[in-house]
């Protein structure tokens, strides 16, 4: 039987998930280069799983496997949603359309080229990850981009940004976190069957 006190562990698991999702916010800005976003995301997801495992090992009764694993997987999806939504929200709120010039081209062997840009000779924060028409630019080429004046988000092409805003997963984040919270509860919720079995055992023992 799981005592009611086990329910106090559910907020600990939820706090881990919320913390890992929150750490995606700075990773989704220009503080982390766009070409290493996947590495940072993998490290955060791995850290989340390790923290959950550590807490489970410290508790007297480990959580039910299926709900806690489902919570880990779903929160990984939430982290991906946050990583996509944060720069879109920044550009939607503060972005301005400017004409920029390609300063440096980083031509990856397996990935599309990315570009450092300047505007009026001043370097822009972040990197442009696409080129109009699906082609590629060269140093000195001019391109129209939407840029955050504070340099928090990578510049984006106007058409690419408009399409991304239509597919913005931000509205899915609150309900997904609600499901994660329910899964945390389910992982430690007392079982009626086990409680009834334990009660019968106590009654049988008391008769002797």
Structural class: alpha+beta
Q: Give the strand content.
A: 5-15%
- What is the C-alpha radius of gyration, as a whole number of Å? 24 Å
Number of helices, counting only DSSP H or I runs of 4 residues or more: 6
Main beta sheet strand tally, sense and closure? 4 strands, antiparallel
Would you identify the regions where 5 or more consecutive residues have pLDDT less than 50?
193-208
Morphology? elongated
Number of strands: 4
Structure explained in plain terms:
The protein has 208 residues and is of the alpha+beta class. The protein has two domains: 4-93 and 167-191, no CATH class; 95-165, OB fold (Dihydrolipoamide Acetyltransferase, E2P). It is 53% helix and 12% strand. It is built from six helices and four strands. The chain has helices at residues 10-27, 37-58, 65-94, 158-166, 173-188, 192-207, and strands at residues 96-106, 114-119, 122-123, 142-147. The protein has a four-stranded antiparallel β-sheet, with no helix packed on it. Helix 1 (10-27) runs parallel beside helix 3, helix 1 runs antiparallel to helix 5 and helix 3 packs antiparallel against helix 5 (173-188). The longest helix is centred in the middle third of the chain and has 30 residues, at 65-94. The relative contact order is 0.18. The model is unreliable at 193-208 (pLDDT under 50).
């Amino acid at each position: 039987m799981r005592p009611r006190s086990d329910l106090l562990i559910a907020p600990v698991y939820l706090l881990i998930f919320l913390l890992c999702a929150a750490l995606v916010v700075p990773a989704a800005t220009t503080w982390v280069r766009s070409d290493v976003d996947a590495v940072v995301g993998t490290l955060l997801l791995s850290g989340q799983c390790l923290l959950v495992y550590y807490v489970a090992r410290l508790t007297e009764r480990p959580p039910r496997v299926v709900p806690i694993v489902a919570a880990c997987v779903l929160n990984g999806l939430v982290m991906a949603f946050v990583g996509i939504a944060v720069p879109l929200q920044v550009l939607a709120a503060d972005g301005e359309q400017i004409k920029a010039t390609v300063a440096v081209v980083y031509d990856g062997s397996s990935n599309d080229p990315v570009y450092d840009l300047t505007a009026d000779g001043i370097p822009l924060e972040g990197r442009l990850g696409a080129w109009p028409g699906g082609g590629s630019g060269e140093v000195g080429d001019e391109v129209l981009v939407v840029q955050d004046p504070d340099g928090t988000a990578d510049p984006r092409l106007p058409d690419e940004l408009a399409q991304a805003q239509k597919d913005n997963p931000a509205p899915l984040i609150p309900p997904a976190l609600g499901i994660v919270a329910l899964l945390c509860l389910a992982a430690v919720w007392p079982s009626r069957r086990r409680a009834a079995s334990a009660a019968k055992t106590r009654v049988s023992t008391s008769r002797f």
